[in-house]
């Protein structure tokens, strides 16, 4: 029963994440299908709204970063089963986003507006590509591992958990952090950049750059081969014309 309960907890956490992820597309893209979007009608004064938005982003950043650190994971697994650790992270990340979506305050004002039809199509395509790159990156990393379902499934079957090897193929052969590159595209590719959207994009970009440094420190500790990978592959923007890590390995073997 305990194994089944952990498994159902993982499935429920994933389901909440999935709905939250779909809502995030509508929130950032100002789609009419969602009730609250990043550029809705302002309901507070500018400075009050700014304070609320910064606080909401701060809650998400602290939760998302702190719970990802190895020290926090070790502490958390003293309280909950280890198999449920990743699902708990996914659940709390989703709750932090739901809090942000629910109480986000539009600021009004327009930073830029692209009216040209072709320009809007290009930015819309970049926005869609960003979300597709996000999903594709999770598949390369093992989508179910990243979101906790693999861990709870293995414990349900009574099988030992084994960490996955470092991913260096696909988009990860071009850049070390395609998932973060996808996020940045999602946040910045918009034909209408409002003050609230700019605040969201700037603060999340700062967070991404800090998160990369923290994540790479953890990866170096967990995967000694990451040092070689980091030297060969750029961080966020691909350098075309250079051999991928797989091609370089093949050349060395030859």
UniProtKB/TrEMBL annotation:
Keyword Membrane assigned: yes
Enzyme class: transferase
InterPro entries, alphabetized: MddA, Nurim-like
Reactions listed under catalytic activity: methanethiol + S-adenosyl-L-methionine = dimethyl sulfide + S-adenosyl-L-homocysteine + H(+)
Single GO MF annotation: methyltransferase activity
Biological process according to GO: methylation
Cellular component terms (Gene Ontology): membrane
Domain of life: Bacteria
E.C. number(s) listed in UniProt: 2.1.1.334
Keywords (A to Z) from UniProt: Membrane, Methyltransferase, S-adenosyl-L-methionine, Transferase, Transmembrane, Transmembrane helix
Keyword Acyltransferase appears in the UniProt entry: no
Localization in the cell: Membrane
Residues spanning the membrane: 7-26, 46-67, 88-107, 127-149, 170-190
Membrane-topology annotation of the record: Multi-pass membrane protein
Function text: Catalyzes the methylation of methanethiol (MeSH) to yield dimethylsulphide (DMS).
Family: Belongs to the nurim family.
Protein's recorded name: methanethiol S-methyltransferase
Organism: Pseudomonas cavernicola
